Automatic annotation (TrEMBL):
Family: Belongs to the ATP-dependent AMP-binding enzyme family.
Keyword DNA-binding included in the entry's annotation: no
Keyword vocabulary terms for this entry: Ligase
Domain AMP-dependent synthetase/ligase: 53-421
Keyword Transmembrane tagged: no
An MF annotation (GO) of this entry: ligase activity, forming carbon-sulfur bonds
Classification via Gene3D superfamilies: 3.30.300.30, N-terminal domain of ligase-like
Protein name as catalogued: Fatty-acyl-CoA synthase
Domain (AMP-binding enzyme C-terminal): residue spans on this chain: 473-545
């Protein structure tokens, strides 16, 4: 039995390993690397389709998984010829395209580290991540060349830029290499090296609202275990009959692992490119018969509005059966609408770059009594296998798993980061001495493993010494049939310390009194915001979450404090 980690001892992966067993097991020591899933593309699921949308009309290029795997081998050979070695970082600056997926397989499989660059960050932040990662090569989507050029000027250590697609007229990338020309010069029979499952496979940067983005370095073992776990029947519930529409950016939390899950299960994979607006999205679902998808709630709310408009008359969602949404709270009313009108099961998932998406996923319980079915679906979900979750308080310690005791959510498991890349100070702050990752989310956990996220620790509102969870208040507001979105932040108050202020996006006129009367039937009277602002849109971070830092700045500009 392992001795407990002494209090005050810094956790590390080395200190967490089991002691040598008395009797070794007689099992093959096959390393869990992405090469195992890559082989599956060739040997088992080679005939499945990868559909890469090229135009807003829905026109697409389709290639088999087998062709994708062979092209990944050509890419690996081309990168090796350019001098890329195991452990080197290779960046991608791209939408969800076939080439991006080929880079997933080729870069990781050759032992280099795939840095999926978040193109939604500010130019300064993008340049910081490229320099911090020490990217030697960047694979660039031609449609994004103009956006990347200012980044390239600030990153002199990038040795090669490889462009796929056609550059816009008048745009030049100095010294750029052609992706297709490089692949054409190589054989697909690349000699894949033997890799250690603990070696780094991918590098993603968090989009924190303060300070520089933080790097999360995932191992091959974590990537493979996550893919196998998500392929399970109780988590993503993807089957070999599905056509998976990957709306989550491949540069965000590894696209929720969907390329790997699709390869493991043998589901077709549809990549929308840059066409995420309601009109092309509706066309893509209709024409390519998507059955399963994942994306932030805004995409699905906007699609619902489009379907109800004259422009969306030809959209058919009859093929769609299941959607996992996350990044911010999924409105219950939206879930009801998709279920009632289209028989689409929309559920909520929870995760983050540090723990991979799907650490918890809610499920539909059609036999649950009354509103319990919708209550469960509105939760962050049930804890997935291989993850451990606990609720902690800095003064009280670990809290009871009773569904009511709220505190910071902490997580550990084989797909959870043990630290941040080249950031020991942040690691010390975010990883506890006994090896749990502090997520910064405030929540509760019940005895059946259902997690409810109540707020971000920094977003909870403390009024008169009592906490008001902004997420709960936002959910209550969005239950109003004419409220499309709502974000609540605290504003300073001389008497109560803080009071809620709500920003709302509405369909048509809606006065404050009607909102207050509506809330009075759903939340405690003292939770009701003192003030409201109707806005055209709520600002979001690069990962689709409400940008509450921006909203607080707006309050300052309005003279109401922050």
């Amino acid at each position: 039995m392992n001795a407990p980690t002494p209090v005050g001892t810094r956790y590390s992966p080395a200190s967490a390993r089991l002691p040598a067993p008395v009797l070794p097991g007689l099992m093959m020591n096959v390393q869990l690397t992405t090469q195992l899933l890559h082989r599956r593309l060739l040997e088992v699921n080679g005939d499945r389709e990868l559909v890469s949308v090229q135009e807003a009309s829905g026109a697409a290029r389709t290639q088999s998984f087998r062709v994708t795997a062979l092209r990944a081998g050509q890419l690996a050979a081309a990168l090796a010829r350019l001098g890329v070695r195991e452990g080197d970082r290779v960046g991608t600056f791209s939408w969800n395209t076939a080439e991006h997926v080929e880079a997933y397989w080729g870069v990781m499989g050759m032992g280099a580290v795939l840095h999926t660059i978040n193109l939604r960050l500010h130019t300064d932040q993008i340049a910081y991540t490229v320099r911090h990662a020490e990217d030697r090569v960047v694979l660039l989507d031609a449609s994004l060349a103009e956006q990347f050029l200012p980044v390239l000027e600030r990153c002199p250590d990038v040795e090669h830029v490889i462009v796929f697609g056609t550059l816009p007229e008048g745009v030049e990338v100095p010294g750029a290499l052609s992706y297709e020309a490089l692949l054409a010069a190589e054989s697909p029979d690349f000699a894949w090296p033997d890799l250690d499952e603990h070696a780094a496979a991918s590098l993603c940067y968090t989009s924190g609202t303060t300070g520089d983005p933080k790097g999360v370095l995932s191992s091959h073992r974590a990537v493979v275990l996550h893919a196998i776990l998500m392929a399970g029947t109780e988590v993503y519930r993807i089957t070999a009959e599905d056509r998976v529409l990957s709306l989550v950016p491949l540069f965000h939390a590894m696209g929720w692992g969907l390329p790997f899950v699709a390869s493991a299960v043998g589901a077709d994979l549809i990549l929308p490119g840059r066409f995420l607006q309601p009109e092309p999205l509706g066309r893509i679902i209709t024409e390519h018969r998507a059955t399963w998808s994942a994306g932030v709630p805004t995409l699905w709310m906007d699609l619902l509005s489009h379907v109800d408009s004259p422009a969306g008359a030809d959209v058919s969602l009859t093929s769609l059966r299941r959607v996992i949404s996350g990044g911010t709270q999924v409105p219950t009313e939206m879930m009801r609408e998709y279920q009632r009108r289209f028989d689409v099961e929309v559920v909520q998932g929870w995760g983050m770059t540090e723990i991979f998406p799907g650490a918890t996923v809610s499920q539909d319980l059609p036999d649950a009594p009354g509103e319990e079915r919708w209550h469960r679906r509105s939760l962050a979900g049930r804890v997935s296998p291989l993850y451990q979750v606990r609720i902690s308080d800095p003064e009280l310690g670990v809290l009871p798993q009773d569904g009511g005791s709220a505190g910071e959510v902490e997580v550990r498991g084989p797909a959870v980061a043990s630290g941040y890349y080249k950031a020991p100070e942040v690691t010390s702050e975010k990883v506890t001495v006994d090896g749990w990752l502090r997520t910064g989310d405030v929540g509760t956990l019940d005895q059946q493993g259902w997690l409810q996220i109540r707020d971000r620790a920094k977003d909870a509102i403390k009024s008169g010494g009592e906490w008001i969870p902004s997420v709960d208040l936002e959910n209550a507001l969005m239950a109003h049939p004419r409220v499309r979105e709502a974000a609540v932040v605290g504003r300073p108050d001389a008497r109560w310390s803080e009071r809620p202020h709500a920003f709302v996006v509405t369909d048509g006129p809606l006065d404050e009194e009607e909102l207050r009367d509506f809330l009075a039937e759903r939340v405690a009277k003292w939770w009701i915001p003192d003030s409201f602002d109707r806005v055209d849109a709520i600002p979001r971070t690069s990962t689709g979450k409400f940008d509450k830092l921006d909203l607080r700045k707006r309050l300052i500009g309005m003279g109401t404090g922050a």
